[in-house]
Amino acid sequence: MRSTCVRIAIDAMGGDHAPNEIVAGAVRASEELGVKVLLVGDPQTIASALPPKTNLERVEIVPAEEAIAMDEEPLNAVRRKRKASINVAMDLVKQQQADAIFSAGHSGAAMASALLRLGRLPGVDRPAIGTVFPTIKAGKPVLILDVGANVDCRPKFLEQFAVIGSIYSQYVLGTGEPKVGLLNIGEEDTKGNELALRTHQLLKENTHIRFIGNAEGRDVLSGEFDVIVCDGFVGNILLKFAEAIGGVILQILREELPQGLHGQIGTAILKPNLKRIKQRMDHAEHGGALLLGVSGVCLIGHGSSQAPSVFNAIRMAKEAVDNQVMQQLQSQYEILHSTSD
Questions:
Q1: pTM score
Q2: Which residues form a coiled coil (predicted)?
């Protein structure tokens, strides 16, 4: 019988700031969220990064002999380095010694390892990385997928993303009847390349989703769509651009606030509002993105993730486990897949 404490496997060697920032965020999560974190990687390196007086009842170091670098070809590296930290962490989930996994390392390697070790949900050809964007309508986020797992896509992959995204939006984000859009260069049905045209037709004919048409770039944050699908090439560019815009706007706000005594008073008055703006726009507040379509809770973080991002990613992983995200996705997708055969 498994422990009631949620256990999160952490690829402690993955990311630009590993292991120090990864460990710091994980330890904070163990203290504030009550989860047990399994830090996977080089034991000595991880141990040296642990803060003093770390509660070792909620933090465990799991040895891994290797790590996968960002410049390695993902599938070959995952197969060749069987004892790499991402593989060892993924095996913990497969063997039910952990309930979820988080990695800020090579996203392609994380996906390859998840496919090889956890497998796909029945009927899913390609998993997608789904991330939640804020919109101009407060409390009404939009789920974008894929944002990097699949650079090249077939129309049926995008159709599956739409179905998986609709289920996630409905059962996890609480959207009553998710409105689905296809990211395209125009609203008209006849716009776009061959992939967009063929995908549009599939989505239009799919009775299991509420497809409302194409979404242009300006529509992404409008709040009119609950789920927007695109291939991973376009989605990753969109994700990185959105992150940059958020940072630019926050920097401009800081620079344009008045200086001197009046500026200090004004800043003090505006501080709560600025904090809420930051929370809505800063990717660190969201932490990571779910790899949807694999048989396990897998979160992929930004390569630049620091402790706050890691903490929030672990919070997301805990919420996914607590809300039985995988069970919902698997049961609902199996029903839809069986009725469409």
A1: 0.84
A2: none
Q: How far apart are CA 316 and CA 1, in angstroms?
A: 24
Structural contact between residues 22 and 10, judged by C-beta atoms closer than 8 angstroms? yes
Beta-carbon contacts of 123 under 8 Å, excluding residues fewer than 6 positions away, are 160, 333, 334, 337
Residue by residue, DSSP assigns 102-145 as: EE-S-HHHHHHHHHHHT-BPTT-SS-EEEEEE--SSTT--EEEE
**CA–CA gap between residue 275 and residue 270 (Å, rounded):** 9
Q: Looking at 122-126, 141-145, 267-271, 317-321, which range is the least confident one?
A: 267-271
Closest alpha carbon to 220 in 145, 312, 160: 145
Whether the predicted pLDDT of 146 surpasses 60: yes
Is the previous residue joined to 146 through a cis bond, with omega within 30 degrees of 0? yes
Residues 107-144: tens digit of each pLDDT:
889 999 999 999 998 888 989 999 888 888 877 889 99
User: Token pair for residue 333?
Assistant: 């997708």
Which amino acid is residue 315, in one-letter code? Answer: R
DSSP-derived letter for residue 51 is P
Query: How far apart (Å, rounded) are the C-alpha atoms in residues 194 and 58?
Result: 51
* CA 100 – CA 7 distance, rounded (Å): 7
